[in-house]
Each structure stands twice: as structure tokens, then as C-alpha cells.
Amino acid sequence: MADTPLSPAPHSDSEAHRYAHELSRHLRWLDSFTGAALGVLAAASGIYTYLGVRSLLDDSGAWTTFAALSYSLAVSVGIFVFWSYMMRLLPAMRTAASRLGLLMSMALGSLAIIAMSSWLNAAALAGAAAVEQHLAHTVQEYQTALERTHANTIAGQALQRDVARVRDTFDGLSEQEATGDLSGLAGRGAVFRVLTQKSNELQGLEAQIAAQDKAVEEAFANGNAILSRMRALSVEPGAVEGRSVRFSEEAVRLSAIIAGLRQLNVAPLVMRAAADLRDSVVLPDLDASTDAGRNSQQSTIASVLTLLGDRASTLESAAQEVQALPEPAEIEYTALSAADAVIRYAGNFVPSWAGAIAIDLLPAVLVFILMVVQSAIRQAQGAHAPEEHMTVAELRAALAAARDLNIGPDPVPSRPAMPVSATDPPAPVHAASIRPVERAHE
């Protein structure tokens, strides 16, 4: 029975084999420059890491430069080795457990790369802008503190009107007493002297408050001038380090002006004066010539003292309202390095952070691409043996390798003699093969 020839593979299998071969060929071509590309990414990350490290180090000597170079070189090597491991090993994993383990390792390594490199890259990319952002933010805080302190001080200066109103009350009463309309005794007697005494105290307080108007306005004008210089320093071109030093000097001056403005607030002074107005009264001797006149003076002075208490309470309430106004928070400018500023104002520099992280974690995308392609190749190849889908070129290469190793083809086995059946016709006999038989002599 003749041997039947092997049937060719189904059309779908041959297409899958060609698809797997094409993907493998693409991967071999891409692998020829993937290492170089990964090295360029690692080197670029190392350069920006070096710049970020130098922004953290104050010294500019040779050892500082060597330390920064060493750190950046270690980062570059670490990034290159880590992603090389991931690109080679993770796509080759075939079980879910091994693939999950390497994915967790890749996540941990990515966090380590962000911690040791990405934030320094962001400092190099946006460090100067972040420091300028810190300067501008500090200027805004100082401006708020200056304006609020000035507003509180102006509210204290407004107490001058309350003091003047109380003084006018006592001036009017003293004029009535001088004509005899208050106690019934015309002249400048004991009641008149009490009223004049308190009127003079209030007049002195009013003059003291008015004398501070000029000092308040000068302090506010000087504070605004310093703020203008600070704003100019925050946007001035040039190295930000030198501008930060001058900015710090201006901040110290402005803090002193704000403290001086706070001291010029007269609300505490008015409260003390109101307490003295009520409690510190020097009562003169009753100078009326008759007992009825002295009794009238005594009752009038008692009424004046009651009025003093009421007016003092009014002044105290007004002064307490001024003192209850919210005070600005204490501001102290603290110079920040580029790296610290980038971290504090990270929300304002999202693109810089994204670029700094992307340059370190971009190879993760290549790892996932390789995983998808390798999975597609394995799925297309299926469980067939490699020789079932070898190309002609691969077959020729295999034969050439076999010849180099002196491996010849297996010898062809000799065909066994076919048994003669009773029904088969006799084989033809050639005449040349018949030998004559000699008859025996009798």
C-alpha cells in the first residue's frame, strides 16, 4: 500500500505563522536601537538630575561637582539597568503569578525612580520659576498684612472723633456752669473746675491721636514703596539666587514697618484714657458761700461723675471694637531652594512635573508594548513545533549548520524481499541466467 503524502497545514495556521514571523522580524529590528534609545533617556534624566542636585548644594567646589556628577551617573545607570531588566523579563513571563510579581516590582522601581530623580528633574525644569512664584506669593502676603494693619490703625485714629464728641460734651457743660445754668451758681466754681479738668484731659488725648496721623501715613507710604521693590525683584530677569537675597533684606524692612504701624494703633491708649476719665477724678473743695449752694454743687458734681462714667464706657466700647478687629498673621520670609519651591508649589507646575516624570517612566510604555506583541506572537504560534512553520531561509540555515557539524542524512534502509504468493505469476526468467544441466552417464 503506497504512503499517503502529509496534508498541508490549514490556511488559518499558515496565516498565523506568517503573522508571528512578521512580528518577530519587527521586534528584531526595533531591538537593534532600543538599547541606544534607552541610554539616551537615562542620560537626559541624569543631566537634569545633576542640575537639580546642584541647586540643593550651596558649595561650588570640586568635591560638590564630583558628588553631583556621581549621583546623576548612578541615577542614569540605575534607570538604564532597571528598564533593561523589565523589557527583557516581563514580556517573557507566561504565568499570571510571575507577570504580577514583575509588575509589582516595576511599580516599586518606578516609585524609587520618582523619589531619586523625577523631583530633581522638576527642580531643574521649573526651579527658578517656582522660586519666583514663592517670591510673588510672599509679596502678596506682605501686602495683605500691611493693608490690614494700616486699616486697623486708621480705625484707631477714627477714635479721635469719639474723644472729640465727649470733650464737646464737657465743654458745653462747663459753659453752662459758667453762666449758672447747671448748678445755679454762676462763675468758675468747683463744678466748673471738674468739667474743665476732664475736658482738658480729653483735649490732650485728642491732640495725641491727631499727632499720629502723619506717622501712620508715612509708614504706609514707605511700606508700599518696599512692596513695589519686592514685586520688581520677583519678576526681574537674572539669577534668582541674588534676587532672593535682596528680597530678604526688603522683607525685613517691611516687617519692621508693619510692626511700627501696629504700635501706632491708639485703641489701647483710648481704653486706658477712658478708665482714667472715670476713675481718676480730683474733686475740688466746694466753694459756695451757703449750705444750699454747697449742696447744689455736690449734687451737680455727682451728676457729672455719673456722666463721666457713661462717656468713659462709650469710649471703652469703641476702643474694644477697634482692638477686636482681626490682626494680620505674622509673616516671616523664608528663602527656599529650587527643589523645595517646586514641591511647595507643585500644583502650579503640573506640566513640568509631568515632563520630569515622563522622561523617567516612558520606558514603561515600551514594556507594555513588548508584552502585547510577545503575547500576540505566542498566540499565533500556538502549540506547533518550530519546524512546522520554518521559512525557506530558516530551513536553509539549519541545513547549512548541519553540514558544518558533519551531520549527514540517515542511510536509506534496503527494501526487504517481497514474499512470493501462490497466486502471483512466476517471475520471468532470462535466458542468460539459465545454466545447462549435464546428464549423468549411466
TrEMBL record:
Residues 410-442 are annotated as: Disordered. The keyword Cell membrane does not apply. Keywords: Coiled coil, Membrane, Transmembrane, Transmembrane helix. The keyword Phosphoprotein does not apply. The chain crosses the membrane at residues 33-51, 63-85, 97-120, 353-373. Residues 195-222 form a coiled coil. This is DUF4407 domain-containing protein. It comes from Thioclava kandeliae.
